[in-house]
Structure prediction request, 136 residues.
Amino acid sequence: MAKYKWLRIIGVLSMFLLVTGCSGSKSTPDTKVQDQTNQGTESKGNVPPTTTKLESDVSLEEQLEAEKGIESVMVQVIEGEQPAVNVDITINNEQALSADQVVEKYSQVIKEKYPNRTIDIIVIKDGKMLKQATLK
Prediction:
């Protein structure tokens, strides 16, 4: 019986040390992340922050989604030093055009609304990217 008492005491002490030893490790990564972010901002020096602004164009999304064969559209308008428009077009089985034709057709519509911007179009079908094109 004395042997089992010692085994229980050693087991309880081992569990206690295991639990307390592991619980202190959570604070270390958080401080490392904070230190790294502080170093990143300090190393930039006097570089002014960029004034990039990201917005959605709901009216253009609705216009493109009204077309036959278009399942969904996401339009992001980027304002700033390098203005651009990012468009993700998800097509379905009703779409008669190829991915290249979809890019060509809808890039014209987007260029009319945003003439002086870089346009990045991604065509998706069934969760797979069919085409990506960047037009200037």
